[in-house]
Amino acid sequence: MEEEINKVTLHGMWASTYSKRVELALSIKGVPFEYVEEDLINKSPSLLQYNPVHKKVPVLVHNGKSICESMVIVEYIDETWKNEPRLLPDDPYKRARVRFWADFFHQKVLPCLLNLVISEGDRQNKCVGEFQKKLKILEDNIDEMFVDDQGASRIKEGRVGMLDIIALTVLGAYKAQEEVIGFKIIDQNKNPKVFSWVNALLEQPKFKELVPPHDKVVSLLLYLKQNNIKLAPN
Ligand SMILES: N[C@@H](CCC(=O)N[C@@H](CS)C(=O)NCC(=O)O)C(=O)O
User: Fold this and answer.
1) Which domain holds residue 128?
2) Are 21 and 76 within one domain?
3) Do residues 161 and 101 touch, judged by C-beta distance below 8 A?
4) Cα–chain-centroid distance for residue 62?
5) Most buried residue among 57, 74, 186, 191 by CB atoms closer than 10 A?
6) Which of 54, 77, 221, 224 to mutate to test the pocket of ligand 1 (most atoms within 8 A of CB)?
7) pLDDT for 151-208, tens place per residue?
8) Ligand 1 centre from 129 Cα, in Å?
């Protein structure tokens, strides 16, 4: 009966940064869920039914009701399962700041990084410059992003939140991306705080088990690059 009352299903895709946000949030909260891997070339009728507007993953289905858009879903999870750790702070101003920085990752950092990975030559050089500017903004503002608490020990103890989730899902595949493009994009010397943050997250056991395998990500990125398939985040 309990299971029927709290039936949670996630429609996702293994390599999707957006689906991973939801998987991580559910895992952090300890919410059991059924996972449906979607073939995005041949989407399931359920996905089309649950997300008729965008027809995209992730979709969370909670007791038959669907919730779409990764950041909306992460907030829904935090508001529905109120156990610790809270993914957003209670204080309205701090919540607003978390949303602001999450949006910066989502709207600014991710598209820039994806452009960098798939482009070549002059275009790629331009993208590198743009991406470095975004990293500098993160580096300069990272202390605020930790919200109440500083860095690695907090993450080690599993006190992670929405900004950790988005930082990991946007920047966590940087080693695979570096392998594909052949140069460093997150440099320990130039971006020490971002570098330590992302690596502390990659070491967190809950996160570690959910990060897609390095070789599989490299193969996918090479395939997308060689076939000139644009990744159009939105
Ligand atoms: N803004 C959406 C983006 C979701 C998204 O772009 N999902 C991609 C997978 S990474 C997708 O389902 N693409 C299928 C399509 O575009 O047809 C979110 O944050 O959830």
Assistant:
1) 92-226
2) yes
3) no
4) 21
5) 74
6) 54
7) 678 888 888 999 999 999 999 999 999 999 999 999 999 999 999 999 999 999 989 9
8) 26
pLDDT at 69: 98
Cα 56 to middle of ligand 1, angstroms? 5
Where are the extended beta strands (E) located within 96-150? Answer: none
CA–CA dist 1, 5 (Å, integer): 6
pLDDT at 2 over 60: no
**Same domain? 53 vs 123:** no
Residue that is last in its domain, among 80, 107, 124:
80
Whether 153 and 221 share a structural domain: yes
Burial class of residue 160, CB neighbours in 10 A (0-12, 13-18, 19+): buried
Q: Ligand 1 centroid to 221 CA: how many Å?
A: 16
**Whole-angstrom distance between the N-terminal and C-terminal Cα of the chain?**
38
pLDDT band at residue 225 using 50, 70 and 90 as cut-offs? confident
Length of the chain as a residue count:
234
Q: Give the atom of ligand 1 at the shortest distance from the alpha carbon of 13.
A: 9
